[in-house]
Amino acid sequence: MKSFTPALVRFIKEEDGAQVVEYALIIAVVSIGLVSAFGSNSTLSTKFSELVASIGTCLTPGKC
Fold first, then answer.
1. How far apart are CA 11 and CA 6, in angstroms?
2. Number of C-alpha atoms within 13 angstroms, CB side, residue 54?
3. C-alpha 38: how far from its chain's center?
4. pTM value?
5. Region 9-32: what's the mean pLDDT?
6. How does pLDDT run across 28-49, given as a tens digit for each residue?
7. In whole angstroms, what is the distance from residue 37 CA to residue 8 CA?
8. What is the rounded CA–CA span in Å between residue 4 and residue 22?
9. Residue 59 pLDDT more than 70?
């Protein structure tokens, strides 16, 4: 149990994963705004949706 406690403390203090989540949330909010703005033009909306899907794939480790 003594070796588990320091590992748990290091895990709680780890912040690398939080940055990825923050960037993903920023991209999602910007994407929603842009899709709303281009919603009337289906061609732009489709292309933008494809771009967002590609970015989402690249955010997944080992997929880009």
1. 9
2. 6
3. 21
4. 0.41
5. 78
6. 888 887 777 766 666 776 777 8
7. 45
8. 28
9. yes
CB atoms within 10 A of CB 22: 10
Q: How far apart are CA 9 and CA 13, in angstroms?
A: 6
* Residue pair 18/57 in contact by the 8 Å Cβ criterion: no
Fill in the amino acid letter for 22: E
Q: Which two tokens stand for residue 26?
A: 């920023």
Provide the residue type at 30 as one letter. V
Count of alpha carbons within 13 Å of 31, Cβ hemisphere only? 17
Tracing tokens 């289906």 back to the chain, one arrives at: 42
